[in-house]
Amino acid sequence: MTEHLFDVLAAPGPARLATLLARHLSAHTPEGIFRGVVSQGMGGSAMAIIELYADIWCPFAHVGLRKAVEARRAAGMPALRLRAWPLELVNGSPMDPTKTRANAEALVTSVAPDLFAARESWHFPTTTLPALALEAAAAVISDEHGETAGLRLRELLFEQGLDIGDPDVLTPLSDELGLGDVDLEDQTAVLADLERGRAQGVLGSPHFFCEGDDAFCPGLDLSRDESGHLDVKEHFAQTAAFLQRHLG
């Protein structure tokens, strides 16, 4: 999530999710949300592409990407099209590892007990630009390759505790994915995604887009108390029920 926007955009507004869910108002699961946005046209015969703007060290995107991939696989839908949203460029500074760990802890205790296994011992990167370059190189081959790269990079960081800014970590992954020699210093594709995202109105990480519809950090109701403690609740069913009452 874009840290500078967090205090203002603590939770995804129902209005922002309205058009995304309007095609599937009976949905009460994450699967229903994403199944609803990938059917194109009245017959639902064609498949639209869901774009996801996110940064790799964003813990909310780690949860959101996994849920989205599980949902689209269960529904037999095509891979997500991952695009870079480099928070260090958006915010003008790298992610704070202490704050990121606290956000991960909040997610673990609320909605993601099986994730962030390495949060107590991770080697947190000072940049994700090389990792985003690798993800972009994979996405050039196919959306499936890009999605796989995005999942593996987040697994290396959040579950294995590895520094994904380190070429010694990224080069073996590039070989694993069959990407060959990737220029990790080439930020052309990352910067192109950043400009494209700004033009589309990306609010933060993760932000989903599909056929003119969009949803910022869907499925997570995020708020902070007076002491700054992050409270996280899963919000898929509640959002669907709200829309069904007011739009149905």
Notes on the structure:
The protein is of the alpha+beta class. The chain is built from 11 helices and 8 strands. The strands form 3 sheets. The chain has a 4-stranded mixed sheet. A two-stranded antiparallel sheet has the order 1-2. A hairpin with a 2-residue loop joins strand 5 and strand 6. Helix 7 runs antiparallel to helix 8. The longest helix is centred in the middle third of the chain and has 17 residues. The protein starts with a helix and ends with a helix. The N terminus and C terminus are likely disordered.
Distance between the termini: 31 Å
Structural class: alpha+beta
The number of helical elements comes to 11
- How do the strands of the widest beta sheet line up side by side? 4-3-5-6
Mean pLDDT: 77
Amount of beta strand? 5-15%
- Residue stretches low in confidence (pLDDT < 50, at least 5 long) are 2-45, 236-248
The strand count comes to 8
Q: From the alpha-carbon coordinates, what is the Rg to the nearest angstrom? A: 17 Å
Query: Helical residue percent?
Result: 40-55%
